[in-house]
Amino acid sequence: MTTSDTVIEVAGLTKRYRETLAVDDVSFAIEKDKIYGLLGRNGAGKTTVMSILTAQNFETSGELRVFGEHPYENARVLRRMCFVRESQKYPDDALPKHAFATARLFFPRWDQEFAERLIDDFQLPSNKRIKKLSRGQLSAVGVIIGLAARAEITFFDEPYLGLDAVARQIFYDRLLEDYTAHPRTVILSSHLIDEVSNLIEHVIVLDRGRVIMDDETDAVRDRAANIVGDTAAVEAFAVGREVIHRESLGRVSAVTVLGTLTDADHRELALAGLDVGPVSLQQLIVRTTQHAAADAATDEGALR
Amino acid sequence: MIEEGRALFLQIAESVEDSIVEGSLLEEGQAPSTNELAAFYRINPATAAKGVAMLVEKGVLYKRRGIGMFVAPGARDRLLAERRAAFATRFVGPLIAEASKLGLTPDELATLVRDRAAASIEGKTE
Description:
The complex is a heterodimer.
Chain A: E1 6-17, E2 20-31, E3 35-39, H1 46-53, E4 61-66, H2 75-78, E5 81-85, H3 96-106, H4 112-121, H5 135-148, E6 153-157, H6 165-181, E7 185-190, H7 193-196, E8 202-207, E9 210-216, H8 217-220, E10 224-230, H9 231-238, E11 243-249, E12 252-258, H10 263-271, E13 275-278, H11 281-303
Parallel strand pairs in A: 3-7, 3-8, 5-6, 6-7
Antiparallel strand pairs in A: 1-2, 1-4, 8-9, 10-12, 10-13, 11-12
Helix pairs in contact in A: 4-5
Chain B: H1 8-22, H2 34-41, H3 45-57, E1 61-64, E2 68-71, H4 75-101, H5 106-125
Antiparallel strand pairs in B: 1-2
Helix pairs in contact in B: 1-3, 2-3
């Protein structure tokens, strides 16, 4: 779906490394001024997709448009984007202030005051060489650049390796505050799904190079439920529903069913003495991913 | 404060409704803004905006141009009526289900509810 608000458009994007299909026929659209979560397991293809979108890698095939143009060697497009990656490299003798000075030159909407406030928030030593910083402090350098750049599209790829819970909360709070004051498009890749689930308006899940979920986050929050109780009663309720996970302990079973429960469902569950529990976004993604993997294994088995 | 498994915008709308029902937000009083709600609950402002929009559509809040959102006159009575109507399904239904599971008779259940309710109201007036 393309609207005038689309800032990134990807259709049939594929990246092949020799034998490996890292990105497999991926299509999605990113709209202006929304916060997206790009989620999925390690190796699912998240970093590859973001690298291609920021012209640090090439597609094998497929179409991509960022602000309506192909980003490769396209300075006009690249200046409007910021890619904060986990493994960002800096020159050997660089100090954090050098990295910030470079960013200030590159990003037209850089806010120096905001950067300085963030340096304080993260208690970053400005006069220590980047090479000598702790893992968390190194992550803070990237996070500060990503926030203070105020780029029209900012990619945060697992930006917080080594950041403790307090520092991560500072990152989330500053991101929300600054996004509210200066709306822009943010694509946040993370495996700390529960931590970011309230921040992201839209969720895209990649699994083995494919998109397995592309939805408004709030719409998926009640998409699944855990049903727990006597095995026979649980199985009776599960008939005709899509079950994405099943476990049992003696005569008690727990199933995760897809689909929003209706009032009639709730009455049926109460009558059958079954308990209903919520499924967090993280659980839903884990279950959906496992389910997709099981389906893929069945398909392959059928082909043999 | 925020529970899993339910749409956030609904929970935000309910939190505002709660304040109106409890009387901490008065009719014609100014309601928290979308940004205040987003910051307080640490959620995406678009989600908070959706909750506020729902309350406007329901006639619980109304917008004063350039000033903000306000609680509509009559909102509290309407919310009370809505909550009372939902009370039987939301609370009494599960209560009866659990009571019958434990073998409590309707009379025993009624006595239990009456005694507890009386004690709780007495406790409050002291």
